[in-house]
Amino acid sequence: MAATPSPPVFLNRVYGLAGNLDTQSFYTGDGQTRRSSLVSPDAGRPYVTLTFAQSLDAKIAGTGGQQLALSGKESMLMTHWMRTLHDGILVGIGTAINDNPQLNIDFPHRYHLPRPIILDTHLRLPIDCKLFNNYKAGVGRRPWVIASASSVDGDESRASRKSSLEAAGARIVEVSFLGAEVRHRNCIDTVIVTVAPNLVGKDGIGYGSNLPSDTLPAMRHVETVLFGIDAVVALRMH
């Protein structure tokens, strides 16, 4: 078995962590919790990192939301180390369906595995996705599916999808506010963006072009580092 690569000190500087990340990320099992290395300045919420990869022309997906392999192996390795510092990874159902992500780490299991959390209003997550396969194989944690407590389709159909997801291993968390516009300007602590040196073109899916100027948060640049051929930019919100 190949040796596990060392964690990048870039993450120590971005998150203000002392010591070796290798000693801060031990896996404790799916049903257990641990004290996170990252502490939010707001006691009412967890520490949140917004992270994604983009092309030079600010595209995050291909035509129709098709998955793009943007991150190189060096920046992806950094991303996996970053995952060990977080208790969960949250994605939307569009990403879960289009990309079929694993949302785990490519390291031995003595490192902390984040919890996959999927925003899935109508319980559309496929039961044959990699998240469930990883959980059954013991290489991923039990997925949590955040769904709407109210249903716009037939109760029988929804009940059947819920039962199938639970049988596959999901924990269904029903909330009443999905589908409504929810704003919270102070819910993100750090932003880490991987910029790949390629262009996607006008048919790709971009972001940010319709954001009202008066709602954009103030961000402070922390550091920009090259990982392989990718530029990784770290920003802090507070």
CATH architecture: 3-Layer(aba) Sandwich
* Tally of alpha and pi helices: 5
CATH superfamily membership, which one? Dihydrofolate Reductase, subunit A
Order of helices and strands: HEEHEHEHEHEEEEE
Largest sheet: 4 strands, mixed
How far apart the termini lie comes to 41 Å
Query: For the record, what CATH class applies?
Result: Alpha Beta
State Rg: 18 Å
Task: Bin the helical content.
Answer: 10-25%
Instruction: Kindly estimate the percentage of residues that lie in beta strands according to DSSP.
Output: 15-25%
CATH fold-type name: Dihydrofolate Reductase, subunit A
Shape: globular
Number of strands: 10
Average pLDDT across residues?
A: 86
The secondary-structure class comes to alpha/beta
Strand ordering within the main sheet: 1-7-10-9
Uncertain segments are none
